[in-house]
């Protein structure tokens, strides 16, 4: 099979991958450096499935991290700070800060100002992505 063109072919390939993974796991043949017929066939079928998904399925991509959050993480990393210390620096409790960093909570205007002042992050970036 060179290409998957129907949902039935896709579902059959998916079932075959699951079977191969199960069988290879039982036999201990899914090690990270393994190069065997199981790994090769799983990789081949997975590529066919990915191509089918791209061409025929209306899948939404995973959410990408905001450039603002990435900039904040880079600042904390460069300064050897953990999330707990970042929250303290910005005057936010750890729980709220965790939600902000994971994209589950929006950044308030007062926090946006502190991000600019404390982390020296470009205000244009803050305005665009807060």
Explain how this protein is built:
It is a single chain. The protein is an all-alpha fold and 130 residues long. It has 2 domains: 7-56, no CATH class; 67-129, lambda repressor-like DNA-binding domains (434 Repressor (Amino-terminal Domain), Orthogonal Bundle). It is 66% helix and 0% strand. The chain has helices at residues 7-26, 37-56, 67-78, 83-90, 94-101, 109-119, 123-129. The longest helix has 20 residues, at 7-26. It is elongated and about 60 Å long.
| Arithmetic mean of pLDDT | 90
CATH A-level architecture of the largest domain: Orthogonal Bundle
Distance between the termini: 47 Å
Largest sheet: none
- In N-to-C order, the SSE pattern is HHHHHHH
Can you tell me the overall shape? elongated
CATH class group of the largest domain: Mainly Alpha
Give the radius of gyration: 23 Å
Helix/strand/pairing category: mainly alpha
Q: How many distinct helices?
A: 7
The CATH homologous superfamily of the largest domain corresponds to lambda repressor-like DNA-binding domains
The strand count comes to 0
Helix content: 55-70%
Taken as a percent bin, the fraction of beta residues is: under 5%
- Provide the domain count: 2
Sequence stretches where pLDDT stays below 50 over 5 or more residues: none
CATH topology tier name of the largest domain: 434 Repressor (Amino-terminal Domain)
Keywords:
7 helices, 434 Repressor (Amino-terminal Domain), 2 domains, elongated, mainly alpha, 130 residues, single chain
